[in-house]
Amino acid sequence: MSSAEWLKIIIGLIVGLVFFMFGMNVMSGSLEKMAGGKLERTLRKMTANPFVSILLGAAITIAVQSSSATTVMLVGLVNSGLMTMSQTLFVIYGANIGTTFTSWILSLAGIESGNIAVLMLKPENFAPVLALIGTAMCMFSKNDRKKSIGTVFISFAVLIYGMEMMGDAAGEFEKLPGFADMLSSFDNPLVLLLVSTLFTGVIQSSAATIGIVQTFALKGMITNGMAIPLVMGANIGTCVTSMISSIGTNRNARRVAVLHLTMNVIGTVVWLAVYMIVTAFIPAIPFLTDVAQASPFTVAICHSIFNVLTAAMLLPMNKLMEKIAMLLVPSRDLPAQPKGVFLDQRLLLSPSVAVTESNNATVKMCHLAHENVLRALDMFDKYDEKLALQIEETEEILDQDEDKLDTFLVQLSSQSLSQKDSQVVSKMLHAVGDFERLGDHALNLLKSARELHDKGISFTPQAQQELRVLTHAIREILEITDNAYAQNDLRLASQVEPLEQVIDGLTSQIRSNHIRRLRQGECTIEMGFVLSDMLTNFERVSDHCSNVAVAIIEVEHNTFDTHHYLNDVKHGNEEFSTAFQTYSQKYALN
Q1: Cβ(17)–Cβ(201) under 8 Å?
Q2: Tens digits of per-residue pLDDT, 445-491?
């Protein structure tokens, strides 16, 4: 065979592998995009019941078509403190089982029949139909979910096309002189295990390795005895992805990656030893003889049996597995968990999970800002220096949270997101700045309370009563805004703007009353400065609550024209007018 023919075969294999991996990657991303926040919510359902966790881990992996993606997701969640190491153990068992779903789909390539209906089950036959349907969905549908489904169909067709290209190129090897002798030199299980491990580690996809093994099996180039160590090696090699992703994480996150590697290595050592002992002492087993040609179907069987047996073997030893991980990654120099929001960059590899966790972090920031303003309000009734220090510390945390979330959300917004997830990111980008500013106003109110305390001065009884009414209104608008954001409740959000208008009226009326008392000599200019600062901050707090509520509402309408919205809601809106009248009566000064 000439060098040109050799080059053609090599190029065919490489191009086929590229198409296969590209299709797998795009399909995985589109499936995850369709799943949205369901992946994260599923992970949070992990319970003490190991079988439930295994099933959920398998379901997630089937949904994203990648055990590596699931494990990297777990590393990120543990590093962010959102899951514990022990919670991930059974999920990883499930991920290893779930990843065999791909090999079962690809095993359909080995179907042989004269029946057209049966032949249409072969991926190479129905993939072009899926590609046509997918193209039509992407071109003509305006629905984001339908476009994602279309992308899945197209990427699956690309994946199958790549597999076909690899099969065609592999078929050419049979024409090479001495090829059969070369294959026989690879009949050592340990050599095959090493080759498969290294190859999978380089391409970081066990599905691609298994796909190649099935392609070679379809061409009758390998036996079942060769397929078994190749499958085992693919399971070890795929751990490279999670090991790389754990670099720079905390100890518990690194332990997750070590758990993934350890369970696959232990499973391989045990079951490969069993395989070698069985074949040595019982060489006549038909399935394992040297002449038993592998097929895509038998490769899928080997893949599933290995992962199920490994999970079954290690299931009773979960405590031992945790101890091994802790031994390999000791607890010394364990870094302290950072205060405030912490979102691991690895979550960006799973955008839908990143969106949900960002939203959870933003809700926590909302709660923190709310609580800090309430603490500042309490300082006017009873000054407490310990509480003052807590307010100052919380304000610093809120500043840091805004920086972290802004950076993370900007990165997240550049990812491929569903329309709903994009709207949620937009809402968060609009809201985090307002939460940080609430912390600033809490600090400003603290300064006013401290000034009153240090100077030993107080407002007139009438001013105190007026401020008490205003404070109650501020507490209510904060409560409504907090609940509206946390629950994404449009009804509650619509109640914020009427109350904000009432608070604006209250601050204006209190200022006028103060000027009247000042002219009558009932109040001092010094008290006027403190009162003016307080009223300004109360007004700003209500403004930021209004901003958050408007963001919640406008996200649902996919528009961010705040000025236009506020004009519409204030004029000729019966619901707004009714709420405004209710709050005006509730917080009347006289």
Answers
A1: no
A2: 999 999 988 888 888 888 889 999 999 999 999 999 999 999 988 88
Residue 60: φ, ψ to 5°: -65, -45
- Residues 234, 301, single domain; the answer is yes
Among residues 455, 362, 444, 373, which one has the least CA distance to residue 404?
Answer: 362
Band (pLDDT 50/70/90 cuts) for residue 63 is low
Identity of the amino acid at 40: E
**CA-to-CA separations, 16 to 42, 168, 197, 211, in angstroms, rounded:** 35, 9, 20, 11
The phi, psi pair for 82, rounded to 5°, reads -90, -15
> Closest by alpha carbon to 148, among 429, 358, 420?
420
Q: What's the domain range around 424?
A: 348-456
Label residue 334 by pLDDT band (50, 70, 90): very low
Distance CA 80, CA 249 (A): 9
Give the HSE-up count for residue 102: Cα atoms under 13 Å, Cβ half-sphere: 31
Terminal-residue alpha carbon distance, the chain: 101
Query: Is 536 inside a domain boundary?
Result: no
Residue 130 shares a structural domain with residue 262: yes
Q: How far is residue 28's CA from residue 31's CA, in Å, rounded to a whole number? A: 5
219, 180 Cβ separation under 8 angstroms: no
**Is residue 190 domain-shared with residue 297, that is, in the same domain?**
yes
Cβ–Cβ under 8 Å, residues 230 and 272? no
For 490, other C-beta atoms within 10 Å of its C-beta total 14
Indicate whether 354 and 271 sit together in one domain: no
| Angle at alpha carbon of residue 178, lines to 172 and 183, rounded to 5° | 80
How confident is the model over 178-207, as pLDDT tens digits? 555 555 556 688 888 888 888 888 777 787
pLDDT at 65: 64
Could you tell me if 37 and 166 lie in one domain? yes
Lookup: tokens for 518: 């000042």
Average pLDDT rounded to a whole number, residues 375-399: 92
The phi and psi torsions of 293 (rounded to 5 degrees) equal -70, 135
Against a cut of 0.90, is the pTM above it? no
The listed range with the strongest mean pLDDT (55-64, 450-459, 532-541) is 532-541
Look at residue 253 in the predicted model and tell me its pLDDT.
76
Helix pair 50-64, 85-98: axis angle to 10 deg: 50
With 90 as the cut, is the pLDDT of residue 521 above it? no
State which of 456, 483, 511 marks the end of a domain.
456
What are the angstrom distances between the C-alpha of 135 and each of 235, 397, 501? 34, 48, 51
Q: Which helix (H) or strand (E) holds 231?
A: helix 224-237
Claim to verify: residue 445 and residue 473 sit in the same structural domain: no
